[in-house]
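Usage

Read records sequentially. Each one opens with the input sequence:
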Amino acid sequence: MFTTRRQFLALSASTALAATSRYKVGITTNTVGGWEKDPFLGFREAREVGFRNVESFISYFPQYYPDKPHEFKKRLDEIGVGVVTLSNGGAPTEMHFEDPAKREKIIADHLRLVRYIKSFGCDHLKINTGPRRPEGTTAADLEVMSATLNELGKRIRLEEGIKFGVHAHMWSQFENRREIDYVMDHTDPANVSFILDTGHINLAGSDPVELAKKLGSRVIEFHLKDTKPEHRGGAKQRIDRPDMMKEPPFFPLGKGGVDFPALKAHLDKTSWRGWLTVELDSSPNITPKETARISKEYIEKTLGIPV
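and closes with the structure output:
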């Protein structure tokens, strides 16, 4: 029994905090239309909106990688942001996971990246695969990719002690449900986790809520972006990469293509824990700062998650 009203309120507050602390919220800051040329501008404006954690690609920071983590951390501290993770994304990391001759370099490059991001307290490495070839991703490609991803994830787990997640991304080697199912079925869940991007999964023809239910705790981070309302449940037809500034396929949260309340209800029901990272590939009509504000308000007011 509670002896005072103050004790009751204190317990209620701590219970509410425990419920919301399962979700760690961040934002990527590579939005074309204002942030793509100056990642630190993106960091500053995201912080001004209210985001406290940022995500980016290591290729944006050649002056700090791989030998100057302390100088990079100083810049982050001056702005007042932490790091969700720093991804690969081309040079200086090899990304042709379908090529068995590149496996040794892929592993070495990504282990170097893991050691770097651990300097900032990151609990996982998120990676993309390389650009999609005209012929797509073959069965042989998937076999090689799965073996490389599994070996890399095993090395990261055993040697560095953090998680490893692969991001399914339109127009990359790892894009659609066939490829996701194959890689998830042919890798060890202890070694390879999944980064579920609601916008890319939707445009690739799948329902991100259904995929989240299937993969469960294997999802360690969600990238949150919306699509057109007519794509709800998964786009009916694949689209080629558009001009992101003339025909943007992704939008701030609330556009209607992704059922975020249903996703949140599922995550609440299963007590999922992890990162919810807002992302927008391009912002042609309003500033990236304003799109960040729109998504932040949606997360807080519609989904009830404090940023």
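Summary fields computed downstream for this record:
- Residues 139-160 form the longest helix (22 residues).
- The domain at 22-302 is CATH 3.20.20.150 (TIM Barrel).
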